[in-house]
Amino acid sequence: MDSIFETKDRDGVVVRMSRKTYERHLPTRPEMADYIEEARITVEDPHLIILDEDGCHHHYRLGLGRGKFKNSYVHVLVYYRGRWGRREGVVASYWLCRGLIEGETVWMAMQH
Asked: Over its length of 112 residues, how does the chain's per-residue pLDDT go in tens digits?
């Protein structure tokens, strides 16, 4: 699989963003072309992680937006799967937003 990035999340689980996911988002969210590094940072060191009803983890981080997105969260949706005793994460989507989804808070940074 051709990856845009591969990193480890805050629990040490490998998370990948595929080129296919990246290219799928550019037509509707062209600003995200400039936020690859910020998406990686958000996976590695989020301010907040929310688990949705479908079992996906929403990683949020403030302070990485620029220009009109200065006060926005970088929001990275990670789907975790396990095979043969190993767990890995795949970035399903990523975008900039001002609000949070509803769900279970599974982790929150003490300060940000």
From this structure: 699 999 999 999 999 999 999 999 899 999 999 999 999 999 999 999 999 999 999 999 999 999 999 999 999 999 999 877 889 999 999 999 999 999 999 999 987 5
Distance CA 21, CA 110 (A): 31
Interatomic CA distance for residues 69 and 109, integer angstroms: 21
DSSP the chain: --EEEEEE-TTS-EEEEEHHHHHHHTTT-GGGGG-HHHHHHHHHS-SEEEE-TTS-EEEEESS---GGGTTPEEEEEEEEEEETTEEEEEEEEEEEESS--SSEEEEE-S--
Distance CA 16, CA 9 (A): 10
Q: Single out the residue of 33, 11, 13, 9 nearest to residue 21, CA to CA.
A: 33
Beta bridge partners of 40: none
